[in-house]
Amino acid sequence: MSGHNRWSKIKHKKEASDAKKSKVWTKVIKEITVSARVGGGDINGNPRLRAAVDKARGVNMPNDTIDRAIKKGTGDLDGVQYEEFNYEVFGPGGTAILVEVMTDNRNQGESLVVVTDPKEFERIRDGLKAAGLPEPLSAEVTMVPQNMVRLQGKEAEGAVKLVSALEDHDDVQNVYSNMDVDDAVLESVG
């Protein structure tokens, strides 16, 4: 029975490792596809694509997988069309979090918050209407904090857990925040 238990542990570690690798590869493939769609499939003429391919090679992605992602982005192969979105959300203690998303399903979020310079308010609002988005529940000029938020205790733990959960989502590419927490909190939660 001890051999079975050892194999079981090895199997679970391999499954966890494979799942983590798959998640990373999915994010990198999306980045390659969007980069190729936006700037073309020439690695030498598209710095964003070059960076995405370098990232793919850094996680040991095979060249044929990289090539397929580029061809999907340029339209040479049929496949999923990814779109980029940025979301700003507020977490525990008023922490501002910016989330960069690449997804093939633009209907995942039920609301959208757009933050812009007050001088651009009407132009942005009218542009969103012209783009065919539904009538907003509210549209207003408001104040947005521009400083770091120092969090401690449960608020710090909650904010770190929220950011970690957002980073783990397959469609999320990057998460930025203005939270300021101790390294000990990051280590204990992470």
What does it look like?
This protein is of the alpha+beta class and 190 residues long. The chain folds into two domains: 2-74, Integrase, N-terminal zinc-binding domain (Arc Repressor Mutant, subunit A, Orthogonal Bundle); 83-189, Alpha-Beta Plaits (2-Layer Sandwich). It is built from six helices and five strands; from the N terminus they run H-H-H-E-E-H-E-H-E-E-H. A three-stranded antiparallel β-sheet has the order 1-2-4. The protein has a two-stranded parallel sheet with strand order 3-5. Helix 1 packs antiparallel against helix 2 and helix 1 packs parallel to helix 3. The radius of gyration is 21 Å and the shape is flat.
Topology:
Layout: H1 2-39, H2 47-58, H3 63-74, E1 83-90, E2 96-103, H4 121-130, E3 149-150, H5 153-168, E4 172-177, E5 179-180, H6 183-189
Parallel strand pairs: 3-5
Antiparallel strand pairs: 1-2, 2-4
Keywords:
190 residues, single chain, alpha+beta, Arc Repressor Mutant, subunit A, 14% strand, flat, 2 domains, three-stranded antiparallel beta sheet, Alpha-Beta Plaits
Q: What is the strand arrangement across the widest sheet?
A: 1-2-4
Percent in helix:
40-55%
Element pattern in H and E? HHHEEHEHEEH
- By CATH, the superfamily of the largest domain comes out as YebC, transcriptional regulation domain
Structural class: alpha+beta
Shape: flat
